[in-house]
Amino acid sequence: MTIRYFKNGARKVMFSDSAVAQKSISPRRSFGFAVIAPVLLLAAAASAARAQVSSAGVTASPTAQQAAAGPTFSPAGGVHRGPLTVKLASATAGAVLRYTVDGTTPSATAGTVYSGPFTVTGRTTVRAVAYAKGLTVSSEVSSTYLVIGPPRVTSLSPASRPAGTPVTISGAGFGPVRLGGTVWLGTAYGKVLSWSDRRIVAMAAPYARSGKARVRAAGVWSNTVPFQIVPHSATAVSSSGSGPRIARFG
Predict the structure, then answer these.
(1) Distances in Å between the alpha carbon of 102 and those of 87, 105, 106, 120, 199?
(2) For residues 54-84, b (16+ Cβ closer than 10 Å) or e, as one string?
(3) Has residue 25 got a pLDDT over 90?
């Protein structure tokens, strides 16, 4: 910037910056020196500089990096009849998946790298994450499975029972909840009164006859054990001598 003074007290301010035009300014004096004019000129220069930066394409702060799509499980968690294999997938193309079954937290550096369907047994919680190049690690996804073996009947109590009365079936692999399970007693389906993984209480149908007892859980039949239907106790009344006499049968 160049300032030239003239005899009449005026001065001419010259700027080399092409963004600001050359101007002649008559100073306003305050205590012997000019104040307002230089401030206005500096503000104009700053405005022009900001316009040049904007036109040069300077961008704002970068956007946050996206995460990979979380894993999906097939089949979904719940009660299943074994053996059971679990499949993992992610909607992100080329994603790497890691999972754990021991309760630890999976990450991009921890857990088993998924390479194909794997077997789960008993009560198992599978925890998994997905990640890919250029994307951050997904949120953790988990699924809990309860895998039960085929049903097995070990005993009936009692092994012979009148129709329409309860019988206790002991064994394993029936499942903690019934889920549509059924019981066969003699020659017909029995009525289930209670159900647990190792114990079922059921009642033979009134029209059932002696035959086999077995349990169907999650669509799978157990082994069979003999079951006998016996008549209900009968009471007969007869007269003899001084009064009636009661005889019980069965």
Answers:
(1) 17, 9, 10, 11, 30
(2) eeeeeeeeeeeeebbbbbbbeeebeebbbeb
(3) no
